[in-house]
Amino acid sequence: MGEFDLIARYFTRPARRAVLGVGDDCALLQPAPGTQLAISCDMLVEGQHFFPDVDPFALGHKALAVNLSDLAACGATPLSFTLALALPHADESWLEPFSRGLLALADEHSCELVGGDTTQGPLNICITVFGEVPVVGGKSQALQRSGARAGDDLYVSGTLGDARLALEALRGTLQLPAEALAQARTRLEQPTPRVALGQALRGVASAAIDVSDGLLGDLRHILTASGVGATIRTELAMDLAAAGSRLAVERAAISQEKQLEFVLSGGDDYELAFTAPMSARDAVRAASQLAQTPVTRIGSIESETGLRLVDAQGQLMPGRFSSFDHFA
Amino acid sequence: MGEFDLIARYFTRPARRAVLGVGDDCALLQPAPGTQLAISCDMLVEGQHFFPDVDPFALGHKALAVNLSDLAACGATPLSFTLALALPHADESWLEPFSRGLLALADEHSCELVGGDTTQGPLNICITVFGEVPVVGGKSQALQRSGARAGDDLYVSGTLGDARLALEALRGTLQLPAEALAQARTRLEQPTPRVALGQALRGVASAAIDVSDGLLGDLRHILTASGVGATIRTELAMDLAAAGSRLAVERAAISQEKQLEFVLSGGDDYELAFTAPMSARDAVRAASQLAQTPVTRIGSIESETGLRLVDAQGQLMPGRFSSFDHFA
Questions:
Q1: DSSP code at position A240
Q2: Residues B119 and B155 sit within 8 Å (Cβ to Cβ)
Q3: How far off is chain B from A256, nearest CA to CA, in Å?
Q4: Do B57 and B164 belong together in one domain?
Q5: Do B171 and B296 sit in the same domain of this protein?
């Protein structure tokens, strides 16, 4: 099967929102008046971001999910995306479920595939995603990393830690009960981008980021960009622990300390970490309800730079946690 | 060196045109009123699109050039791009010249790097490029593949065949005089995207495509999208033969027949193939002069579908030429 047949069979659908879609030299997009375009780009590599034997349907989902998560962190409404795909060979038994997983999530967010590239090579999936952010009174409504102010509350959506728990189990560094592994694995392989929450937080949150490399590491980007510091209350952060790790602790498969480590620096969670003024607590609650996405307040922003963890007694904990870094 | 240091050192520059550039979850672009955004995406893989020992400066140039060539084929004005890069290891002696080659071409076209991703993995370069096309009276000025009409002239810019000539020499399937190889190799490794010509052809050309997979194969996309056919006069097409192959023929390193094959189906040329009504011949000439890019008329569009080659005597030549296809 030729390259162009491949594209046609699995990835071409009639253009909807785009003026011109897959199959010309360029896709054409007509952004709505009074909007900005938010753009993000993520590359997934076999062995680095997923196991060679991962379910292709789940992989299609995840490849788009991690990109939608970046749009969520900006409060952008998804519009469209391009897909560049390097494949060792044109394997239909892989392409069919991969495209199904990818396009199912795309449809869920009305995010249209408008172009891309396919080539032979070691498996590599590169998606660039486009979203829309309103500009009101000349001011962008995009959530950025740089808006956190001393006194702001610090929140995280959903749950943290299960993606890393599953990763470690699949690597064989720990053993899990089957039920805990199943729950954790879903979080690793099919994360839920918090797109609705991101949009609901426009005009409410002062800064936001998506948690992809681990909470502490990603939070540092907000602190650096905003020129502030933060204190996290670990007993509140523990409320973020996901279902798989709770079960694993219950069954004594991992320690509570390991659970906290995964919450604080696990990685691959694709939740939103964000800040908002104390005066916006009701608005944050309303955004959470509107988006049907739980959020947990875990600490606060301070003028003193640096990141501090305190325990239930208010005692400073030593800095033991570092984040994921692909080249670290 | 960590991933984020890497990005900072080689790829971060202050945002210019973009509202928000490298280093947040998303880049933000504010398209000008009355314009459409043209988007294209190309992935380059080691061993498939370039040799492992290619000069990294040239590779940086080429990675962006092939994307700018897609914008050129749409008549779009370059705005910005994202870069996703998978690297086996963070090698500064590679990154430094690669980023120089990339950003030198970017600067030449005022095309700003606004975001991206770096990760560990087999070398893979994925660029998504953004350009601007005016909309006049509700009508997009983008050049598309579907506008060719019977009676139109068929043109190609610049020269063809040297990229393939160099490729075959580097693969060892033929021997070239050093001077011919040097000329051909520059065309393979540092192609010139015809950005100015594409813009000058807005409102003049009826259809356009960039020649990346070989003239005949790419031309077929125009014919299919437009529902027409074409006849190419091979003695006119031979005028497109590039300097390296002319020298190679002169020195008897390749036959004229091989030269014609490389012109018609060599690939990796990054010239523009386009059609325009006969009434636009003066306008095409003016566009060529404005863009300081030679163009050659090689045939015409006909209502009878299919692609025909005729020799100097007007005799039909047998269809011996096929195009590059990565999965063929």
A1: G
A2: no
A3: 29
A4: no
A5: yes
Contact A48 B114 (CB under 8 A): no
Q: Which of B71, B117, B121 comes nearest A41 by C-beta? A: B117
User: Digits of tens for pLDDT over chain B (328 positions)?
Assistant: 465 466 667 776 655 555 555 667 788 888 888 899 999 999 999 988 888 889 999 999 999 999 999 999 999 999 999 999 999 888 888 999 999 999 999 999 999 999 888 888 999 999 999 999 999 988 889 999 999 999 999 999 999 999 999 999 999 999 999 999 999 999 999 999 999 999 999 999 999 999 999 999 999 999 999 999 999 999 999 999 999 999 999 999 999 999 999 999 999 999 999 999 999 999 999 999 999 999 999 999 999 999 999 988 888 887 655 444 443 3
Backbone dihedral angles phi then psi of residue B323, each to the nearest 5 degrees: -100, 165
Indicate if B74 and B19 belong to the same structural domain: yes
Give the pTM. Answer: 0.90
C-alpha–C-alpha distance, residues A25 and A20, integer Å: 10
Residue among A38, A116, A327 whose CB faces B3 most closely: A327
Residue B95 lies in a domain: yes
B105, B190: one domain: no
Tell me which residue in A37, A42, A121 faces B37 most closely, judged by beta carbons. A37
A57 and A150 housed in the same domain:
no
Asked if the Cβ–Cβ distance from B120 to A3 is below 8 Å, we say: no
DSSP for residue B146: G
Q: Which two tokens stand for residue A190?
A: 């099919």
Question: Residue B238: which CATH number?
Answer: 3.90.650.10
Q: Which alpha helices (H) appear in B75-194, and where do they start and end? A: 92-108, 162-171, 178-189
Closest CA to B29 of A208, A137, A40: A40
Q: Quick one: tokens of A250?
A: 């219950």
Which ipTM value was assigned to this complex? 0.87
Do B292 and B165 reside in the same domain of the chain?
yes
Which chain A residue lies closest to B72 (C-alpha atoms)? A25
CB-CB under 8 Å, B26 with A131: yes
Q: Which chain A residues contact residue B205 at CB under 8 A?
A: none
Q: A133 to chain B: which residues are within 8 Å by CB?
A: 28
For residue B94, list chain A residues with Cβ-Cβ distance below 8 A.
Answer: none
Q: Does A328 fall in a domain?
A: no
Give tens-digit pLDDT for A15-74.
Answer: 555 555 566 778 888 888 889 999 999 999 998 888 888 999 999 999 999 999 999 999
Q: Are residues A173 and A298 in the same domain?
A: yes
Give the chain A residue nearest B114 (alpha carbons): A39
Phi-psi bin for A240: left (phi > 0), alpha (psi -120 to 50), beta?
alpha
